[in-house]
Amino acid sequence: MSGDQNRETIVWPEVLPQHVAIVMDGNGRWAQARSLPRHAGHREGVQSARVVTEACGRLGIKALTLFAFSSENWQRPASEVSLLMELFLRALQRETSRLVRNNIRLRLIGDRSRFSQRLQDEIAAAEELTAGNTGLQLTVAASYGGRWDLTQATAAIAREVQAGRLTPEEITPECINRYLSTADLPDPDLLIRTGGERRISNFLLWQFAYTEFYFTDVLWPDFRAPELAQAFADYARRQRRLGRTAEQVERLQRA
Ligand code: IPE
Ligand code: IPE
Ligand code: MG
Known about the structure:
45% of the residues lie in helices and 13% in strands. It has 9 helices and 6 strands, in the order H-E-H-H-E-H-E-H-E-H-H-E-E-H-H. Helix 2 (27-33) packs across helix 3 and helix 4 (78-101) packs parallel to helix 5. The protein is an alpha/beta fold. The chain starts with a helix and ends with a helix. It has one domain (15-254): Decaprenyl diphosphate synthase-like (Undecaprenyl pyrophosphate synthetase), CATH 3.40.1180.10. One 3-methylbut-3-enyl trihydrogen diphosphate binds at residues 24-29, 69, 73, 84, 195. One 3-methylbut-3-enyl trihydrogen diphosphate is lined by residues 23-25, 67-70, 73, 197, 199, 201.
């Protein structure tokens, strides 16, 4: 793997994000550029996901959230959808033991009712096998949409109010957070999107309120450790003001 070969020469910045989210885009174009079928790009994309996940684990990053399949991706041709599901199933079967070895905890967020029973079972098994791991928290967003997440959270809150367990006054941003599928994760510090598009495509809409965005033209199958280091270097140069002035932030940093 190119990323692993270069590992020794990569300089990682000192300031690292705690939670990284990635829109893994550009698999199809990577394949098309090589006159290969789109699934060849998806297959190579799985390798990138493994390299990036293990690099984040080694760096001590707390959480990585990968956008693998959106609510809207169900509209793709049936043949591509079924191939992606097959690839997902095989990746779960093959990679879970590696996750265990690397102390990585895997969880899936998204509408799992749309997956086959077999895939649902495989996801549950992988989650269970890695549940006790204390290293990187790997969240795979599949059949996921930010609007789906906010909708299911709103419905759950409404049910609580209806049952008399919650009052409208208790609905705060923190309360909403608890009903989102990312409830136990901090908001992402950094979003990386590969493949050249500069949009969110219905990923973590609420959670990105103060996330730093990094867009690169590199296609996902070509995104490995050196490209990740470049994204982190860019992140390390940013000043996160969260609504304050630059002077206030600098004063807080000196204190
Ligand atoms: C991202 O690559 C993977 C999924 C959305 C499942 P694409 O398949 O969107 O690749 P492009 O954007 O067509 O190149
Ligand atoms: C975003 O990629 C979703 C994933 C990477 C899973 P898309 O290729 O579906 O996004 P659009 O359609 O270009 O916005
Ligand atoms: Mg795409």
